[in-house]
Structure formats: structure tokens, C-alpha cells
From TrEMBL:
Belongs to the carbohydrate kinase PfkB family. Ribokinase subfamily. Residues 8-288 form the Carbohydrate kinase PfkB domain. This is Ribokinase. It is found in: Cytoplasm. GO terms for biological process: D-ribose catabolic process. One of its GO terms (cellular component) is cytosol. GO terms for molecular function: ATP binding; metal ion binding; ribokinase activity. Homodimer. The active site is at residue 246. Catalyzes the phosphorylation of ribose at O-5 in a reaction requiring ATP and magnesium. The resulting D-ribose-5-phosphate can then be used either for sythesis of nucleotides, histidine, and tryptophan, or as a component of the pentose phosphate pathway. It is an enzyme of class 2 (transferase). Pfam families: PfkB (PF00294). The gene is rbsK. Pathway: Carbohydrate metabolism; D-ribose degradation; D-ribose 5-phosphate from beta-D-ribopyranose: step 2/2. It comes from Stenotrophomonas tumulicola.
Amino acid sequence: MTDAVRPMVLVAGSANLDFVVRAAHVPAPGETVLGRDFSTFPGGKGANQAVACARAGGAQTQMLLALGQDEAARPIEASLRDAGVVLHVMRDAALPTGTAFICLSDSAENAITVAPGANMALRGEHLPALDGIGWLLLQLETPMASVLAHARAARAAGVKVALNAAPARALSGELLSLLDVLIVNEGELQVVADNPPDLATGLARLPVPCVIVTLGARGSLARMAGQIRVQPAFGVEPLDTTAAGDTFCGVLVAAFAHGASVVEALRQASAASALACTRLGAQSSIPTLAEVEALLSDTSRTPDADAHAALAAWCAP
């Protein structure tokens, strides 16, 4: 991935307005929990990843998104533009802007329900011209037919394709064949790899050149060219894990767009994701490139060789 790569990234995906309430714990089925603070934040996997790519990854970033003609669209657009993302907005008069309802616990865990709204109006033909685009980053909060059409168009244009398979869904062989990078967490790996008995089997089942698995507080790993590379997580005191995974994805692809190796891309994405966990909200939690670089240069907070060895041993078959 260190060949000459065009630095522009196009993110095609979802954008939501997040309604967040803090509570002592996430309610169980049938349980009512009294919450405390309530806030709204711009969110959505696609929009979060676009902001992370531009702000924390320092990449030139464009985004294709669909919004309703309502007030909920305004803060989403403002957040993306403030991060330096160039927008291609599709308007849908019949559907509202997407929304997400998030309960955030005191232990930084969350439960999220999404009403996709206008996100479901995004179509394959909406993809803008790919001139100057090096990478296309996709997720699964828009119609699967649109995701497939966008991946086909990118491959035909010689653009590299990365997919964050979230929310978890089974993926067709055709879609997998169009990908250069697949990013999943452990639960998503179970779905896309058809319930493998272990991590190694799941990785072996996916015919994608580079598969990256995020492992929560443990860190992350990449399988590329038959080799496994691991990146332990940076130690932080988490406040809100919302958008940590999206931050990881955006910074990872930004690093690839700048020609970084898999090892360096994992390191940058892990640092940015760790910082995002220390702040409230989705896009509001995403750090700047300067903050990411400061963490990377702080040897007292960088995972050492023992941490790498321990994670490698945990990931081994």
C-alpha cells in the first residue's frame, strides 16, 4: 500500500443527528432507566468517518450523503464543512434526515437505535465523478445495492475500495471481490465470515487482500499477504466509546491514502480512536491531526514490545 496513491478520499454513506442521553447503565429489555444529561450531536457512520479522515487523518476528503429537507440536516452539514469535508448532498423531500437514539452508560458503553430516514434514498447513480479520488470508503447504513454499485464504479475507475462492514450483514462474493480493505470488529467478523470457530479461521475465509479487525480495548490486527500485524490499544480512561470505531476507520483510510504501510496505518488509527473515547459525542469527540501526532510521539503512552507480544499471542490460533 506504499505505491503512489492519490491522496483524495471519498466517503459514501450515512449521516444522522444523534440524540444522546446519559444514564447509570444501558436499560435491559423491558427496563426503564432514568437518564441525566441529554444532548444532540452530528453522527452517522459515514459522516463520522469522513470527519475523522479529514480532521484526524489529515486527508483531502469528500462525502456523498443523503439528507432530508429539515432542520436536523443543518448541524450535520455544518460539522462536516467545519472539518474541511467537501460535500455532495442528495436531498429527499419525502424522508427526514437520519437519526440515532443513543443511551450512554457511566461505564462508557452504549446502546444505539438508528432511524435511517434519508440515508435509504442514496443510490448508485448518485456517486460523483471519481477524478482525483484514490480511495472510496463505504459502510452498511445505506442500501446494500447502492454500496455494491459504488464499489463497482470505484473498481472500474481504478479507485481502491475500503468497506467497514457495519452494521453487520452478510456480504456477497461479488462485493468482497471488489474490496481492497475490509474493516470489521469481532462481532461483525462472525457475521461476514459465517460464524467461524476462531479469529484465524474467520480471517482465512475472507477473500479480501487486507482484512482489519478491531478488538476493542485490546487493540486491532491486520491480515495482509498471509501475515498478521497487531496493534495494541493506547491506554486511556474512556468516557464515551461512540464513534471510536468510525474514527479508526477514517484515520486508517486517510493513512493509506497518504501511502502509509499497514503497520503505520494501524498505529495512527489506534491513537485517534483512543483519543475519541475520552470525549462525549460522535464527531465532537474526533481529535485533530496535531493531537494524534502528539499521542504518537509520547513514548510513555505508546504500547511497548511486551504489549505487542501479548496481543500477538492472544490472536494466535
